[in-house]
Each structure stands twice: as structure tokens, then as C-alpha cells.
Specification:
heterotrimer, A mainly alpha (282), B alpha/beta (436), C mainly alpha (294), A: 282 residues, mainly alpha, MetI-like fold, 0% strand, B: 436 residues, alpha/beta, D-Maltodextrin-Binding Protein, domain 2, globular
């Protein structure tokens, strides 16, 4: 219906949207183009169209190629990224659901204090506390482990708040009914609240997965065993070769492969993403 | 040769891949990405194949600053690596951290591994030794800036590809001819502070700082604003206008300008040769750095950059024997010669240089001995022995910041360098205070 | 902070429910952050071999340093420009995408997915497009007679990091605006249209006010993003240069702490940034609390 509203401007709308979408896609498109030519094309000016090297480049990348650039094979790196991203995602959603439930549905001493402790995490970007965090993780013997890569990134105020806001909109009648039926708090959480928060959980899944997948500084500091390398680290390693020309065609091919999983997650869950965030944060 | 050695390395790495027998792992954190990283791994694998007690585990930990911070974080967490590759500007910081580092000369002595500091090139070993001449870290990848020029573009402009420019006056003349033939820019440079100011000063026998550029004490003061440096910066500013010189950013970000043929000449690390030969289709020549003929004492000799290996304390005492053995292995002429020939880094021992010569490497690869010639051009003076200044990471950033200000026309060259000197001196005093 | 009127009894259960979140927060956030704060009061060598208590010296030095003031000013310019650019584009795209039927799904997908790009990758991509020698955009600009060299031209470098940072964040704002637009009752717009209001007037008088809460929320989110999460973008494109043209607060923390190993100063800067980001977040939180009616 809205389409009929701005009819005179329709053509202009499409024009702007086409230009806008093109510009948004262009950086990645050019990365793709670079990944389909040989290195010298990247260095002397790329054409706008994909080239003939596409199969060779990706075969090199997926096969033995990364070894010759001093990198572990890309498969395990992608797998590590996936493990870490999923661990962060599920961990974050789980502990945030529980703690949001606790601070919303219970009255207990220090409730407000607990809330503010969690809130504090919003103010502490990784760069700010990375060295002391490293010392803590090292003292637990968690360097070079999936636990060390994910656990410190699991606490999240954002997710806790989102769930708290969702819970606040749940009618009290439901709680009363549950209590009359003799349902305990955990049953109520499991059978009422979680199903009601499905879209929010989906939205958080997108945000946290992207966040976990895209970590760079933390895994770099944390790992000394290449078996734990993530793909974002791999890209930086390829792109920042000292005293050596970065192999842009392979860097960009890695970029494309590294982009696929989070892009798929965003694309597939786009609808729930919007709904789940928007239903509460207005 | 590269191929066969690579094959051996691969087999070795496959054998070493599985920890089949009880070996002690020696952590070696480095910043060598890409092809260089692969060669570091080969060095480790080859060493591992020579004995069964220790296993060197090379770990890429990011860029030089990331390696340094990572190593420091690990030390503070009481899990330091055994060996840490630290870039030359971090040298003063490492030297000051007496409880954290295990000086190499002590390490070698205490483990009874033969070690003769005199067999190392003086320009290299001097950089990493204390006032008494004791080597504190192990020189690993040292390089020096040299001039690279695109011989194809020289031919196109009617220049003799076998006569590279000697002086900056030549550079200017050549650049104009090249531009007349359609080349957009004459000269660019990498690592602006290191190559155009620190090395420039040494090469023109001008002080970078007092106290032999800081080698003789923490109370050194910067001298980068002398007439020769100011004149050079003035020229760069003037040349920038017509792209006789074109600034391409800090670090090695200007590389693309030379690779793409936009600039016909560049000042870059001797170790850039491998990348250039592998990735450029054009024929590239190497030559000594250009100088100003009217500056007395020029050309003197260039100074080195790159990184050295520091041994960290805090590991099991028995492990250090493995570190000492690894360093002894790295010092072997044949190993050094291979590393030097493969990477373009300087041979750290005289023997490795001689061996490379006997093997005919320099005859077969013209220009590869330029770097060695350049650091040995003349007996080093106080101005050209080396450089050791505290807080130098920041100082270098300040110099580049001020140079960029001058190039943008925000300051005159004199103002820019004066400001770099006074701001730098503040940092030097700060370092002196916290380390004396 | 409000809770529910109807609650469950007990202390042990909520304590257990909170335990994992609180444990992780205290061990990996609060404690290290406390260490950071403490570090701001000391002059420390990098290796932690010794430290001197210096009181507020690190802060006084910081506030007396013109370079820090410059970085602060620059960060404000950068953060507001990034936020404005990103939100203006997002709102434009959202309003237009909301108004079309044909191709709407395609536009939405194309405009959404850059959200998935890591800052570190975004930096590499834009580096590649604007590299003065090989970049597509840089060559295009050169062809138009605009000489592009962000290694030398501070204004261009700042433009580059603003574009790259905004690009990465447009998607997020776009989604929120789009969702906001879709909740505006169409009857309201129809009524206005019957009253003779043209498209733009309707947008300005009805749509924009209704989008205010979303706009405010996004403004704060994007500011916080620009303050903290753009490190990866700057690191990969300009590394803070030329001069200090793109050395924002977060980048300066990295440079001073990571590269120069001046831990005391870096910690003091972290405290300042924490205060800025913290107050922004607090304002945002208060606003959300006030505007949601349960």
C-alpha cells in the first residue's frame, strides 16, 4: 500500500536504492573480483569483472595453498571460528536468560547491585582491559583453548537487558496462573518465557554469532598454537606480511570465505533479527 | 636449491609434527608472516631434525608491536615464551627490562655453547650489545635500506639501467626524465623516519642523537634537526609538488607505488628483494642509497633495522640449553648463508657472507651484496654505529607525524624537525627517569 | 531498576541463576577493569617488574597534553560525522525501501548483510578501494582531477575512516529504521494525505517524530560504536595517520599501551574513555527505561 503513496517519486526511489545497494555491496564485490585475478592485476589496477583465476585461487586456498604462506589450512581455521562463535552465542544467550529471569522475577537482597555489576560490562571494551584479562585467563591455564577463546566474551549486559525488557512485557497474569498451577520458577522459565522470547533469542543469535565470529585482538593474544587460529586472524596474518607484498588475491579469497558464514546467518535470520530486537527496544 | 631444501623441510615438518618422543618444546614467537614465516618454520624444522632433545615451536604472533605486547603479557602472566622476536626500536625497552630477559652472552656461557661475538658483523652485533660489548640479544633478521629501481622504466625513459643514481641530484634529474617518459613519480620511500631521517643521518655522518646516537648513555638528545636533515626535508617537500618524490605513507605502505610502476625508484629494506622478485614482472635493480655530494663525510655507512631474538626468563632452567643450541645452529655459516640468500636479510656473520660469495650467490644475483657493502662502506663513526633510544616507537611516530606536517605544508621543514626534536627529547627524558 | 510485581519467592534460586553471569562478569570484566583503573595511578614498566605510585599524575599529564586534547576533539568530529552519515543513509534507504514493493526484498537483503562484516575486514576492504595507487575509488577520483592520497592528506584520511566506519554500521540502523517505519499506522499517513500534505511534509511532520525514540537509541549506539569498535577499521586503513589525523581516543589507547608500552597513561586514557562511553550508555538506558511502558 505504501507503494502507491509516493508514486511520483517511485523512479527516483528505485534509482537511489539501486545506487545505495550497489555502494553497500561494492567493497565486497571488489574483494571478490580481486580474488579471481592473479596478484599482478590487484597491483596494477583491477578490472570491474571477475577473472579467469577464480578456480585456481580458491583451489589453492582450500588445498595446500595456505601452507606455503605460513598459515594453517583454511578449513580448520573456519571450523575454529565456528566453534568459538557458537560457544559464545549459546553461552551468552543461556547465561543472559538465566540472569535476566533472576533479576526480573525475584525479589532478593543485592538485586540492584547485581544488575549494576552486569551493566558495568557495557563500559569496558576489550581493548581497555585486554592485558589484565589475559593475565586472568592465563592463571586459569586457559590459553590455547576453546574455553579461553570464548568464556571471557560470554558475559553480556546487552543480552541480559534485552531479555529483561522482554520479560517485563510478559503479563503478570501468566505468572499468577503458573503459580496457582504450582509451577516452579524453572518450569515457568522453560515453558512460558523461553517460548515467548523465541524471536528475541533469534535476534541475539545473529548479533552474538557475528560478534563472536569477528573477534580479532583477543584470539591473537590468546593463542600460540596454530591449531586454535581463527579465520579473521588468518586474514590479518596474510594482509600484514612484513617485508613482503601481501598476496591480495588470496587475502581477498579468504575474506570472501570468512564472510560467508556470518552473512548467511544474517540473511537467513533477517526477519527474526529485526522483530526480535525491535519488539522491545523502542 | 630452494626447491630441494623446501622438500627436506616438508618431510622434516611431517616427522616433527607428531610429538612421538618426549621432547622439550621451545616457544619461539615471531612476527614473520607469509613467505618469511614459512622460512622461519623451515629453520626451526631443520634444527629440530638435528637433535632429539628439543623442539623449536615457531609461533606467529602478529605484527612486531603485537609480538612484543603479546610476549610482555605472557611474561606478566608468568608463561613467557622462551624466545621473542623484537624489532629494533624495542631494543632499549628490552635492555632496560633486566629481570625479564636472559642476556644472550650469559646464556651461551652458562650452557657451554661456543660463541664468538667477533665473528658477527660489527654493524650488526654492535647494535645489540651493551656498553661493555656483551651481546644481549641474538641478531636474527637485520636489514638496511637500499635503493631499488625499475630497470624497465629506466630503459623506457632512455636511462642506462646499469647506472643507477648516485646522488640526490641524480635522483632529481632521473625522475624528471622518467616523468617526461610518462612515469607518474620518481622516488618513494618506505619507513619514512627510519630510512629518510635515521639512516639518512648516519649515511651523511650526521648525528641522530648525541652520545653516539644513544649507544653511550640514556642522557642522549636528539639531533635530527641539523642543516643536512632540514635541507633534505625541504627537498622532499619541494619534490612532492611535482612527484619527483611521492610520499606513500608509513611502514611499507608505499610498496604498491613501486610494485605497480607508479614510482620508478624506492628506498626499501634489503629484505624486500624476495617479495619484489617474486611479485614484480619488471626487471628491478638494486643500488646504494643516494646521498648529497656536498655534505662532508657522505656517504658514510648505513645502519641496520629489523629484529633480534630476546631470551625471556621465567622458563624451566633445563629448557635454556635448547635455546642456546638453537642460536648456535642459527650462527652456522651454511644456515646463515641460506637465510641471507633466501630472505635478503643481512648475513649476520662474516663467515656467512664469505660462504655466500664462494657459492657465487652475488655473481648470480647482481645487487644482492649491495646491503652488505653499504653497511661496511666505511669504518663506522659515532654517528653511524647504530642507534639506541628509549621510547623510540613513539619518537619514530612523532618524527613521521612532523614530516607529514611539513609535506602537507602545515609547517616549514625547520619547524617540523625542531618540534620533532623537542617532543622526542621529552620522551627521552621520561625514559631516562624511569630507567636510571 | 524495576522488577516484576508478581515474583517468585526464594533467594537460593535467583542466586544460582545469577551465578554464572556474575562469576564470568566479575572474573573476566570487573577484576581486569579494576586492574586497569589501578594501573592509571601507577607508573609502571612494561614487564611489571616494578611500579611507582604516582597518584593522579597520569591524568594531569594527559589533560595537560595538547595531543590528547586534539585526539579528543578529533574523536568527537569522527564520532558525530560517522553517526550522522550512517544514520542519514540508513534513514534514507529505510524510507525508500519501505515505500517500494518491487524489489523490496532484494534491497533489504543487500542493505542488511554488511552488518556481518568484521571491522578488521571492513578496514582491509576500504584500504583496497582507496589505496592511492591501486584502489578503484582512488583511481576514479584521480581521473576526476581530485588527487587522492590519504597517506599525506589528513582530511582525506579522516574521510576514509568515516566512510569505512559508517558503511559497516549502516545496516544495523537501516534495520531499526525499517522496523520503526513499519509500525507507523498507515491510516495516520492516509489522513494526512487527505489533508493535502505532500510526501515530504508527511515524512517530516508524522514519520520523523514517531521515529524519534529509534533515532535516539541508534544515535547513542552508533556513537558508542564510533568511540570503541572502530579500532579495527582505523588499524587496517590509516593506522592513525597521517600525522595524528585519525588517531582517535581508542586508537591512542592502543598506540600508547600496545605499541609504546606506556601502561600508566594508556590506563588513564581507558578510564576517561570508560567514563565517556559509560555515561552515554547510562543516558541511553535511562531513556529506554522511561519510554517503555510495561
Amino acid at each position: 500500500m505504501a507503494a502507491t503513496r509516493f508514486r511520483p517519486a517511485k523512479v527516483a526511489s528505485h534509482a537511489v536504492l539501486i545506487v545505495g545497494s550497489t555502494l553497500m555491496v561494492l567493497p565486497v564485490y571488489m574483494a571478490f573480483v580481486a580474488s579471481t585475478h592473479d596478484l599482478s592485476r590487484s597491483l596494477t589496477g583491477l578490472p570491474l569483472w571477475p577473472g579467469p583465476q577464480i578456480i585456481d585461487n580458491y583451489r589453492l586456498l582450500l588445498g595446500e595453498g595456505m601452507r606455503s604462506f605460513g598459515l594453517p589450512p583454511i578449513g580448520p581455521m573456519l571450523l575454529n571460528s565456528l566453534i568459538v562463535a557458537l560457544a559464545i552465542t549459546f553461552g551468552k544467550i543461556a547465561i543472559s536468560l538465566l540472569s535476566a529471569f533472576a533479576i526480573t522475577y525475584f525479589q532478593f537482597p543485592f538485586r540492584v547491585l547485581a544488575f549494576w555489576v552486569i551493566f558495568a560490562t557495557l563500559m569496558l571494551p576489550v581493548e581497555v582491559r585486554i592485558l589484565p584479562t589475559y593475565e586472568v585467563v592465563a592463571s586459569f591455564g586457559l590459553l590455547d583453548s576453546y574455553t579461553g577463546l570464548s568464556l571471557p566474551l560470554i558475559a553480556s549486559a546487552t543480552a541480559t537487558f534485552l531479555f529483561r525488557q522482554v520479560f517485563m512485557t510478559v503479563p503478570d497474569e501468566l505468572t499468577e496462573a503458573a503459580r496457582i498451577d504450582g509451577a516452579g520458577p524453572l518450569r515457568f522459565l522453560w515453558w512460558v518465557l523461553i517460548p515467548m522470547s523465541r524471536t528475541n533469542i533469534a535476534a541475539l543469535f545473529v548479533i552474538t554469532f557475528v560478534y563472536g565470529w569477528n573477534q580479532y585482538l583477543w584470539p591473537l593474544l590468546m593463542t600460540k598454537d596454530t591449531a586454535y587460529y581463527t579465520v579473521i586472524m588468518g586474514i590479518q596474518r596474510l594482509a600484514r606480511a612484513s617485508d613482503f607484498q601481501p598476496q591480495w588475491h588470496l587475502v581477498m579469497a579468504t575474506v570472501i570465505l570468512a564472510l560467508l558464514p556470518p552473512v548467511i546467518v544474517v540473511a537467513v535470520m533477517q526477519k527474526q533479527f529485526v522483530k526480535g530486537l525491535f519488539e522491545t527496544e523502542k | 636449491m630452494r626447491k630441494t631444501l623446501g622438500g627436506v623441510g616438508l618431510v622434516a615438518s611431517m616427522l616433527m609434527g607428531a610429538p612421538a618422543w618426549a621432547q622439550t618444546d621451545i616457544q619461539f614467537w615471531h612476527a614473520m608472516a607469509g613467505e618469511m614465516g614459512q622460512r622461519v618454520e623451515k629453520l626451526a624444522n631443520d634444527f629440530n631434525a638435528t637433535q632429539k632433545e628439543f623442539r623449536i615451536v615457531p609461533v606467529y604472533k602478529g605484527t612486531y608491536p603485537e609480538v612484543m605486547t603479546g610476549g610482555i603479557a605472557a611474561f606478566r602472566a608468568k608463561q613467557p615464551p622462551h624466545i621473542l622476536q623484537i624489532f629494533e626500536v624495542g631494543t632499549a625497552t628490552m635492555m632496560a627490562a633486566k629481570g625479564a630477559v636472559y642476556p644472550v652472552y650469559e646464556l651461551m656461557k652458562e650452557h657451554g655453547v661456543p660463541f664468538e661475538p667477533k665473528s658477527y658483523l660489527p654493524a650488526v652485533s654492535g647494535y645489540f650489545s651493551d656498553v661493555k660489548g656483551n651481546m644481549l640479544s641474538f641478531p636474527f633478521n637485520s636489514s638496511t635500506p637500499i635503493l631499488y629501481y625499475n630497470r624497465d622504466l629506466f630503459k623506457k625513459a632512455g636511462l642506462d639501467p646499469n647506472t643507477p643514481p648516485k646522488t640526490f641530484a641524480d635522483v632529481e634529474t632521473y625522475a624528471k626524465k622518467l616523468q617526461a617518459a610518462g612515469v607518474p613519480c620518481g622516488l618513494t620511500t618506505e619507513w619514512p623516519s627510519f630510512m629518510q631521517f635515521e639512516n639518512f643521518s648516519a649515511y651523511h655522518n650526521q648525528p641522530i642523537a648525541t652520545k653516539a646516537n644513544g649507544l653511550d648513555g640514556l642522557d642522549a638528545e636528539l639531533k635530527l634537526n641539523g642543516p643536512a636533515q632540514v635541507k633534505h626535508l625541504q627537498n622532499l617537500v619541494d619534490w612532492q609538488k611535482t612527484k619527483i618524490f611521492d610520499y606513500g605513507g608509513r611502514g611499507d605502505s608505499s610498496k604498491t607505488k613501486f610494485f605497480s610502476g607508479e614510482c620508478a625508484m624506492t628506498v626499501s629494506s634489503a629484505a624486500a628483494r624476495l617479495g619484489i622478485v617474486t611479485n614484480m614482472k619488471a626487471d628491478v635493480g638494486m643500488a646504494l642509497l643516494p646521498y648529497y655530494a656536498d655534505v662532508k663525510g657522505a656517504p658514510q655507512n648505513s645502519i641496520i633495522g629489523g629484529a633480534s631474538l630476546w631470551v625471556m626468563r621465567g622458563q624451566k632452567p633445563a629448557d635454556y640449553k635448547g635455546v642456546a643450541q638453537f642460536f648456535a645452529y642459527l650462527s652456522k655459516p651454511e644456515v646463515q648463508a641460506w637465510w641471507h640468500q633466501e630472505t635478503g636479510y643481512l648475513p649476520i656473520t662474516t663467515a656467512a657472507y664469505e660462504l655466500s660469495r664462494q657459492q657465487g650467490f652475488y655473481d648470480k644475483n647482481p645487487g644482492t651484496d649491495v646491503a652488505v657493502k653499504e653497511i661496511n662502506l666505511n669504518p663506522p663513526t659515532d654517528n653511524s654505529k647504530g642507534l639506541r633510544l628509549g621510547n623510540f616507537v613513539q619518537i619514530r611516530a612523532i618524527v613521521e607525524e612532523e614530516v607529514e606536517n611539513a609535506l602537507q605544508g602545515k609547517k616549514t621543514p625547520q619547524q617540523a624537525l625542531d618540534s620533532a626534536v623537542s617532543r622526542g627529547n621529552e620522551l627521552l627524558r621520561q625514559f631516562q627517569k624511569s630507567n636510571s | 531498576m524495576r522488577g516484576k510485581r508478581v515474583t517468585f519467592p526464594g533467594i537460593a534460586v535467583p542466586a544460582l541463576l545469577l551465578a554464572p553471569q556474575l562469576a564470568i562478569t566479575i572474573i573476566f570484566f570487573v577484576w581486569p577493569a579494576f586492574q586497569s583503573l589501578r594501573g592509571a595511578l601507577f607508573q609502571q614498566d612494561a614487564f611489571g617488574l616494578g611500579e611507582n605510585f604516582v597518584g593522579l599524575d597520569n591524568f594531569t599529564k594527559l589533560f595537560g597534553d595538547p595531543a590528547y586534547a586534539a585526539s579528543f576533539g578529533l574523536t568527537l568530529v569522527f564520532a558525530f560525522a560517522t553517526t550522522a552519515l550512517c544514520m542519514a543513509l540508513a534513514l534514507l534507504f529505510a524510507a525508500l525501501a519501505d515505500g517500494v514493493v518491487k524489489g523490496a526484498a532484494i534491497y533489504k537483503s543487500l542493505l542488511t548483510w554488511p552488518y556481518a562484516v568484521a571491522p578488521a575486514i571492513a578496514g582491509v576492504l576500504w584500504w583496497f578501494l582507496f589505496n592511492p595507487t591501486i584502489g578503484l575509488f582512488a583511481r576514479g577520483l584521480n581521473a576526476l582531477g581530485i588527487e587522492w592520497n590519504h597517506y599525506l592528506n589528513g582530511g582525506q584520511a579522516l574521510t576514509l575512516v568515516i566512510i569505512a566506519s559508517a558503511w559497516k554500521q549502516v545496516s544495523y540502523s537501516f534495520l531499526f529504521f525499517l522496523a520503526g517505519l513499519q509500525t507507523i499506522p498507515k491510516s495516520l499517513l492516509e489522513a494526512a494525505s487527505l489533508d493535502g500534505a505532500d510526501g515530504f511534509t508527511r515524512f517530516r511532520k508524522i514519520v520523523l517524530p514517531l521515529l524519534m525514540p529509534t533515532t535516539f537509541f541508534l544515535a547513542v549506539t552508533n556513537l558508542v560504536y564510533a568511540f570503541c569498535d572502530t579500532f579495527g577499521v582505523i588499524h587496517a586503513t590509516t593506522a592513525g595517520g597521517p600525522g595524528t589525523a585519525t588517531t582517535t581516543l581508542i586508537y591512542k589507547i592502543y598506540q600508547d599501551g600496545f605499541e609504546a608500552l606506556d601502561l600508566g597513561s594508556s590506563a588513564a586514557q581507558s578510564v576517561v574513555l570508560m567514563a565517556v562511553v559509560g555515561s552515554l550508555t547510562l543516558i541511553q538506558f535511562r531513556y529506554i527505561e522511561r519510554n517503555i511502558h510495561y
